[in-house]
Amino acid sequence: MTVGIPTSLARLSGFVLALVTTSVFAQDGLLWRQLDPANTVYMQIGKDEVIFELNPLFAPKTVEQFRRLVNEDFYRSLSFYRVIDGFVAQGGDESDIDVPNSQPKLAAEFELERAEEHHWTEVQRGDLFAPETGFIDGFAAAQDDKNTWLTHCPGALAMARNNEPDTGSTDFYIVIGQAPRYLDRNLTIFGRVVHGMDVVQRIRRGKTQDNGVIGKDEDRSRISKMILASEIPVEDRKEVYVMDTNSPGFNDYMQARRIRSHEFFHHKPPAVLDVCQVPIGTRIEKPSILIP
Description:
Layout lengths: L6 H19 L6 E3 L5 E6 L2 E7 L5 H12 L7 E5 L4 E5 L19 E2 L6 E6 L6 E5 L2 E5 L3 E4 L5 E4 L12 E4 L12 E8 L1 H4 L20 E8 L10 E5 L4 H11 L23 E4 L7
Antiparallel strand pairs: 1-15, 2-3, 2-14, 3-13, 4-5, 4-14, 5-12, 6-10, 7-8, 8-9, 9-10, 11-12, 11-13, 15-16
């Protein structure tokens, strides 16, 4: 028996989506930042595409190794072997579950010393997991009076490891559920999904009783290939833009999400804003043939 979505609920979902979309794309003063091709990775799952933005500011050694592995075609045909619904999708060569490899182990890159040059855009103070939350060049982050770190918001890309902090190597995971913020500063976040979360959400899940591990190889979603944008000829390369969290319009956009003034809300939510509930819009364009 197929259960359909009630018409009223479908209309409501569309209306709420329209509220988000309109606020993102019609905000005055909102600028867009083009991604650096050297920090942009295309991952293909089957015939579908996911785009990552890497973050060498917070995780320079991890990004360096990940870039090298991508350029060496290391991830081609590897799979997402541990996928827990509402939590994470983990892929790689299974070295995180005691399959040995020869790749170097990575020192933990959990946080940075707080610095003014990080271009901090505040979201709120008194977050449940940190004194302050905000954005640094599009990445959701948190900080105290000494250190700054990236947060486990949906779409965060991080390096898996064993119990010891310096045991990450090749296996990575993507947050696919509610933000597991208790993991902040315990694993190295080195990037984020900027396009293709719908593809990520279609990755095949494992069973809860098996801790998400998918035993049969044929039951797993597989990585067809990964490639750095900088390795693609300029004429074939997509131009990827994300909302500039340093622009004046971004603060206005956040304020509109913090204070829900639309007539739709008969019971106004409190004027608070979770850093993981601020979607960062993405635009993808092909270079114009008119541009020399």
